[in-house]
Task: structure prediction
Amino acid sequence: MVVALAAAVSLASFGAPELPRLPEIKRDPQITYVDRQGAVLGVRGGRFAPPVNLASLPAYVPAAFVAIEDRRFYEHQGVDALGIARALVTDALKGHAAQGASTITQQLARNLFLTNDKDLERKATEALYAIQLERTYTKQQILGLYLSRTYFGQGAYGIEAASERYFDKPARALTLREAAMLAAVMKAPNTYNPVASAEKSEERTRLVLDAMVETNAITAAQRAKALAETPKVWKSAASAPAQYFVDWIDGETHKMVGNPKQDLVVETTLDSASEEAAAAAAKAVVARYAKQKVEQTAVVTLDAQGRVRAMIGGVDYDKSPFNRAVDAHRQAGSSWKPFVYLTALEQGLTPDTIRVDEPITIANWSPQNIEGEGFSGPVTLQVALAQSINTVAARVADEIGRPNVAATAKRLGINTPINTDPAMALGTSLVEPIEMAQAYAAFADGGNKVSAYGVERIRTTSGQLVYQRKGQALQPVIANPALDELTGMMRTVLTQGTGRRAALPGYDLAGKTGTTSDYKDAWFCGFTGGLTTVVWMGRDDNTPMRRITGGLAPAELWHDYMRVALKKLPSAPIPAGPPIAPPLPEAIPVSAPGVAPAPADDVSSLLGPSSPPPQQQLVPPPTTLLPLPAPGKPG
Result:
């Protein structure tokens, strides 16, 4: 080892004319995803960022690394003879390898071209490559490349990723104390990072600050001030909940641009404040009901244009990155019933239409109401929806034709296959939470179809536009009076029905609970003017929860999250929709089961334009409330 390093030092000192050619420095392009305010959500693609522009950082940031890792960095030519001698003496005194002798340039050579194998050949090659790097690049370029490539623990490569991971800020905003903490990580990234061991991080950070004083990078007073700080360290990355969303739009981005040849920036629709509120509510409510076997949840919020403002695909991305918001297929339960009643209203029934809640058998299937509930006898459709009465929904779907209900659901945005057996009225079809959000968003947007999306524009890092989403023409899919009648019925779900836990005073809200018969799935799907949020809860192994209904934990999560989100995102009273009822597509005859439902495109040309939303008001418009049975269990 000593002989090999001595030879390298000699080459550096006397300028040997022949050195091995440097291998090509390779870096795969990265895609950086930012929220609607421009804050970084995540990076996909290549592992390494471009070389750091040192001029963009406070001077103490690179100084911290030089002081602790290679204080003669600006003096040596890649290999530090004095550093080697010092390390050999220290090792001899302690009887073991106690001090490293690799310069920053050697570390960079190893990161760029070699492995971490500890053998003489690798060490000698590293030294030769370091000398060649020094001959090829300036000190500033070497240090910038080093800071972009070195590993900081917790999956963070490069100082920019490390700054975001530990402190939720860009590297240019690091304080002196935070810069020293990151430089301290270099000794052993998995051991000295502030998440793995706060005590070891603190100890090593003091050494970094001492070294900075010794090298005149800072004063003793600055050191004392830095030690008095208590930086906030994120145990989990602040952007961790948004990684479900980033994974989703990363796939969408590649569909648009393929495999990029250069770094790209994707400007997204996500609102980070709403995302954080949704994540906090999700963790709190799932923990609250853990004893009742609630394990996972998904949350999707869309605005009137289909922008995804929040997406939670699970409780903890680090433990389970599976995105339940877009990839899980779960039974919709009673959250499906608005499609049944919308179809009925479009065929001429009204909220005041009476149907009997009593035992019924349809094709050898006999639906039951929620466990423990009896039968209420004659009830209006409004009461049947508010109280989530199963027998009436099944009777009405059979009366109006289940293929027609399927056609309605597809028209509104349900894209997964829909069964038309008798139980479909109670939501036995498998759906994705994002689909349900699309479909309910039509109610929140005056009857216009809404398609969820997350990418606004894509540009290069130099600002060249690659993709810009264009405005979409309105596509009415629900006409009046059915739209206005249905939203009125769904308002009573929150005021007098199964969704009372979701109610928020002062806002015009409507929605529907959903619970499967075996408690495997529970939903709350709700909206106000221009803003829709869908919540699902269940277990990944598809086993039952313990009597968790949509009106319980999902409604509470919706309430806790929307209480915050409605203060941050634009909302308005629920729009009334088209003032005049245009002709609707001809219903599929009930006597012809199995006939394929009409495609959604056949409907749009027959429906009239949407009217503008009414003036904003805090209190919802008066709704005629019909007498309801005594409140039962949440449905």
Summary: The first helix runs from residue 2 to 14.
